[in-house]
Amino acid sequence: MGFTMGLNLLLLMAMVATNILSLYHLSSTIQPKQPPSPLQQPVPDQLLQQLHTIRATINHLTRLQPTTTTTTTKPKSTIPSDLLLYSHISPIASSCHSHPDLLHRYMNYTPFAICPLDTELAEALILRGCHPLPRRRCFTKTPQKPTSQLPSNPFPSSLPDSAVVWTKYNCKSFTCLNRFNQYKGFNTTIADTTFMSYKSDLDLPIPQLLQISKAASSVIRLGVDIGGGTGAFAARMKLHNVTVVSTTMNLGAPYSEVVALRGLVPLHVPLQQRLPVFDGVVDLVRCGHAVNRWIPVTAMEFLFLM
């Protein structure tokens, strides 16, 4: 009996000694705690709130409800199931799933015939964040008498009326557009002097912009003009060997066609569209009158930081 108790006591002491040695070993091998890296720093609550507000604003811009002029009388049950499936494919469709009625009207056309003249319907979708694929099975209507030669000068003396399909516009010529507002960019004589001199203390004319670039030993070769209208800024920069693409919307006038007639590149996208441009490849971004005080501040921050 005494031998058994002594053996148990010896085993207990050996176990305790083993645990003490193990604890000592672990305490001696644990490295001091390193400070968290910048990537592990917690995100400030203010930044999280701003990101949440920006996301909510963009969701609001891309989820505009159809107006009474763009709604369809057809029940939603008539919308094809494959079209509804397409409307949920991201990121091509974006918010198309929120407006299946407009998308159905846009895609409801006769194959192998002339495409419907419904540019206002396409722009209604684009303004709601839905960018449908082009209609590949119909033929886009072209001008009946296209011009055989286009001017190489981005500031031609006049723009050819025959190069535009005027069906959906109130005006049927550039003369008509200039008569209503000669400062919209369709008057090439006035557009020739745009961006060349100060009109207010906030202006930065192109000569001064190029001078600043030269003084900073910085090269300007590529640029984006957001809300570029008829492409007057891109046309002027082209004369300085700078390539600028302009974002346009054909709201009431053929802005995209005029940019193309000047030998420039129009991008038919709204303000809430993220441009497919890689970081650090564009030297200059200009914002036209479209980016003004009527845009929510959070949406403007998203536009500048995207």
Automatic annotation (TrEMBL):
It comes from the Eukaryota. InterPro entries: Prob_Methyltransferase. Keywords: Membrane, Transmembrane, Transmembrane helix. The chain crosses the membrane at residues 7-26. PANTHER family: EXPRESSED PROTEIN, S-ADENOSYL-L-METHIONINE-DEPENDENT METHYLTRANSFERASE SUPERFAMILY PROTEIN-RELATED. This is S-adenosyl-L-methionine-dependent methyltransferase. It comes from Liquidambar formosana (Formosan gum). The lineage of its organism: Eukaryota, Viridiplantae, Streptophyta, Embryophyta, Tracheophyta.
